[in-house]
Amino acid sequence: MSRSYVAALLGVALTLPGLASANDLLDYYRVAQQQDMTLQAALYQRDAAIEAKPQALSYLMPQLTASGTYERDREHDLTGSSLSSIGGSTGGTTAGTTGGTVIVNSNTSYFTTKSYALTLSQALFDWSAFQTVAQASRQVAQAEATYRSAEQALLFRVADAYFNVLFAQDTLQADLDARNSFQQQFQQAQKKFEVGLAAITDVRNAQASLDTASATVIADQRALDSAKRSLGQIVGKPVVQIAGLQDDIPLAAPDPLSEDQWVSAALQDNPDLMTSYETAEAARKNIDVFRGQYLPTLSLQGSVGRKISDFAIESDTIDDAIGLQLNWNIFQGGLVASQVRQAKATYLQTQAQYQGERRVVDQGARDAYEQVISGIASVKANKQAVISNQTSLEASKVGLRVGTRTEVDVLTAQQALATAQRLYYQARYDYLRGVLSLKQQAGRLIENDLAGLDQLLQAVALPSPQITPLATPAPTP
C-alpha cells in the first residue's frame, strides 16, 4: 500500500463525533503551548539545530577579508672604517682594537609605511565541506522531527492529565455515593439494634464498611488534588474545575481496521523513529566528512592592496593578483584514519539504535491498536457490569426488607457497585487514551484530535465533588 493512500485513510480515522460543547480540552492545550517548558525547550533546541545548515554552507560561500597596517619605523645606518692607531678620532664613535682604531659613524632616519588590502577566496573543491552541508541537512531534519515529537507528546500529555483529573473526580463521586449509602446502612442498623430488630454484628459490619469508605474518600480527594496539580503544571496555572465526559460516548473502531496498515504508517511517519533515522544518516555523512580530509582542496584567490611609504624616496604602489590555491594535507600522523574509524563506529552505534527504535515503534503501534479494539469491548462490558451491580444492589435491599438478605449482602453489593463504577470510568478513559496513542504512534496526532474530544465533553464545567464531614457515630456497645 502506498504511503499517500495510508495517509489519506488515517487522516479520517478514529473520528469521534459528538454533541457541541465547550472547547475545554483544546483551550488547555493552547495555553500549554505557551506555558509548557518542555515544549519551549524543544522549540529552542530546534531553532538552534537548524542553524547548522547555514553555518555549513558558509564555508562554500565567498570569503572576503580586509587587512591594513600602519607602521612608524626607525632605521640606524651604521658605517665604519678601520684607521691606524696613530690617528685620532674623526668625530664619530671610536672603539679601540688591537690592530688599530675603528671609527663608526651612526645615522638615524625615520619613515612611515601604510598598507591595506582586500582578499577574496572562493572554494572550488572541498569534499569535506560538501559533505558537511549534506550532514547539516540531516541534522536539520532530525531537529524538525524531534520538535514534532515534542508537539505530539504535549497533545497527549495534556489529554492524559485532563483524563486523570476526570477519572479522579468520577472515582471520588462514586466513593462518596458509596460512603453515603454505607452511612445510611449504619444508621438503619443502629436503629434496628436499639429496638432489638438487628444483631450487634450488623451494626459493626456497617460501621466497618463506613470507616473504610471514609478512608477511601480521603485518599480519592488527595488523588484529585494531585491530578489537578499535574495538569496545572503543564498549563502553567491552577486548575479549579473542568468539563466532564458525557455519559454516552461513541466507541469508534480504528479506520482502516487493519493493524498492519497502522504499523506501516508508524514505521514511515513516527517522529521518534524519524529522529533516530536522521541521526544515523547524519553519522553516516560524518564518515565522508573525515574521508574528505584525504583529498586536496582547491580555491580561487584574488587580492588587491596598496602600500604607501616615505622611506628614502616616497613610494605609492598598488598590487593586485588572482590565482588558484591548492592545499593537500598528505599525512597528519594518522589523525584522519583514526577519525574515519571513530565515525564508522559512531554510525554503527546510531544504526543499531535506529533498528531498536523500529522495534519499539512496531510494538507501540500494535499495543495502541489492541488497546483501542479491546477498549471498545472493555467499555461495553464494564458498563453492563455497572448495570448488573445496580440491579444486584436493589435486589439485596429488597431482600433485606423481606428477610431473604442480610446487612452483609447489602454492604457487599454496595462495594461491588462502587468497584464496577471505577472500572467503567477507567475503561472509558483508557479507550480514549488508546485512540490518541494510536494516532501518536502513527505520527498523526494533531490539534484537531483534541477538538474532537472536546465534543465528547459536557457543555458546562462542573465543580469537583465536595466531601461533607460525617457526624461522629456513637460508640456501639
Question: How much helicity do the residues have?
Answer: 55-70%
Based on Cα principal axes, name the global outline: elongated
> SSE string, helix = H, strand = E?
HHHHEEEHHHHEEHHH
Number of helices: 11
Main beta-sheet strand count, sense and barrel state: 5 strands, antiparallel
Q: Which stretches of 5+ consecutive residues score pLDDT under 50? A: 1-21, 81-100
Separation, N- and C-terminal Cα atoms: 76 Å
Q: Strand-residue fraction? A: 15-25%
Mean pLDDT: 86
Structural class: alpha+beta
Number of strands: 5
The radius of gyration is 42 Å
Question: How would you summarize the topology of this molecule?
Answer:
Elements: H1 3-11, H2 24-35, H3 37-49, H4 52-58, E1 63-83, E2 93-96, E3 101-125, H5 127-194, H6 200-235, H7 259-269, H8 271-291, E4 297-309, E5 315-327, H9 335-402, H10 407-441, H11 447-454
Antiparallel strand pairs: 1-3, 2-3, 3-4, 4-5
Report on this structure.
The protein is 60% helix and 16% strand. The longest helix is centred in the middle third of the chain and has 68 residues, at 127-194. Strands 1, 2, 3, 4 and 5 form a five-stranded antiparallel beta sheet that branches. It contains eleven helices and five strands. The radius of gyration is 42 Å and the shape is elongated. By secondary structure, it is an alpha+beta fold. It starts with a helix and ends in a 23-residue tail after the last helix.
In a nutshell, what does this entry contain?
This protein is α+β, with helices and mostly antiparallel strands. The protein contains 11 helices and 5 strands; from the N terminus they run ααααβββααααββααα.
